[in-house]
Specification:
The chain is α/β, with parallel strands linked by helices. It is 40% helix and 16% strand. It has 10 helices and 11 strands. A 6-stranded parallel β-sheet has the order 1-11-8-7-5-6. The protein starts with a strand and ends with a helix. It folds into 2 domains: 87 residues, Leucine Dehydrogenase, chain A, domain 1 (Rossmann fold, 3-Layer(aba) Sandwich); 134 residues, NAD(P)-binding Rossmann-like Domain (Rossmann fold, 3-Layer(aba) Sandwich), CATH 3.40.50.720. The longest helix has 21 residues. The structure holds nicotinamide-adenine-dinucleotide. The site of nicotinamide-adenine-dinucleotide has 24 residues, from helix 10.
Length: 293
């Protein structure tokens, strides 16, 4: 059984991106810049944004963190996005989700200039992905594709089952795996909360992607022997014995599922790190397109 080590793959991706950035800087160009908007002080969101900023710095990108109070109104967030859209020194814009109730996530997503949509959530990016046109791929599925490529896990002709149909993970993952691209060409089944015979479908999977947000939901009796299992789930589960008072759990019961698989991603240390790699890659792509370099 192969452990799909996200740390290893993310480090390799970041090394390539850093080398490219070093050349840009050496040639007198400005660094790629990511702007992140964080609303409120949700613990997980704080952690994610801090990690994104830190990773930018590690590879020589610059970053701009815009913080708003939890009670900020929608118009102010949209106004800030308009400013960042117009700022030529900003290549990529991300708004950390979820947002407080008074702000429409859809409006915010659609306000970002598609040329700076490094999260790949804009309907324009999603539409291009569906049609197989060059676009920003949502960072998590993008990272998973990089992982499949890094470990040369052949996907062509395989049956992939994706649990979860969100616009940020499940749906784009299903599109990529079914596309006629390297590490695509799977026959894909997408499952969701209304799928009645989930276990039977999962048992048919050569590749199982769990992205439902239910800790340790996937058990050994749902997994075919020798399957590749990709665990996207990240849930903070309260645990008094842990230093922070919680532990991060994936959607897969790793201890019982791992021995049955041919390859599996751990949580933490798997897909989460690849998500950041996907975001950084999209930011460099945005920089190249926006500057014409
Ligand atoms: P979401 O809540 O938007 O979507 C969950 C999906 O799972 C829905 O489509 C729902 O229909 C389906 N689902 C829920 N319960 C189900 C059940 N019992 N059976 C079958 N399907 C069910 O979540 P999301 O934003 O796609 O995130 C999913 C998980 O991935 C979460 O744990 C999230 O924290 C994590 N996540 C991780 C990363 C990463 O970098 N590793 C990135 C994004 C999200």
């Amino acid at each position: 059984m192969l452990i799909l080590d996200g740390k290893l793959v993310a480090a390799a991706v970041k090394e390539t991106l850093k080398a490219e950035t070093d050349i840009l800087l050496k040639n007198g160009k400005r660094a790629p810049q990511l702007a992140a908007i964080l609303v409120g002080s949700n613990g997980a969101s704080e952690t994610y944004v801090a990690s994104k900023v830190k990773n930018c710095e590690e590879i020589g990108f610059t970053s701009l963190l815009v913080r708003f109070d939890e009670t900020i109104d929608e118009a102010s967030v949209l106004q800030k996005i308009a400013e960042l859209n117009a700022d030529d020194s900003v290549d990529g814009i991300l708004v950390q989700l979820p947002l407080p109730k008074q702000i429409s996530e859809q409006k915010v997503i659609e306000a970002i200039d598609p040329r700076k949509d490094v999260d790949g959530f804009h309907p324009s990016s999603a539409g291009k992905l569906v049609q197989g046109l060059p676009s920003f791929i949502p960072a998590t599925p993008y990272g998973i594709m990089m992982m499949l490529e890094f470990f040369k896990l052949e996907t062509k002709g395989k049956h992939a089952v994706v649990i979860g149909r969100s616009n940020i993970v499940g749906r784009p993952m299903s599109i990529l795996l079914s596309s006629n691209i390297p590490y695509g060409n799977c026959t894909v089944t997408i499952c969701h909360s209304h799928t009645p015979n989930l276990k039977e479908i999962c048992l048919q999977a050569d590749i199982l992607v769990a992205a439902l947000g239910r800790p340790e939901f996937v058990k050994a009796d749902m997994v075919k022997s020798g399957a590749i299992v990709i665990d996207v789930g990240i849930t903070r589960v309260a645990d008094e014995t842990a230093k922070k008072g919680f532990r991060i759990k994936g959607d897969v019961d790793y201890n019982e599922v791992a021995p049955k698989t041919s390859a599996i991603t751990p949580v933490p240390g798997g897909v989460g790190l690849m998500t950041i790699a996907g975001l950084l890659k999209n930011t460099l792509q945005a920089y190249k397109t926006n500057t014409g370099i």
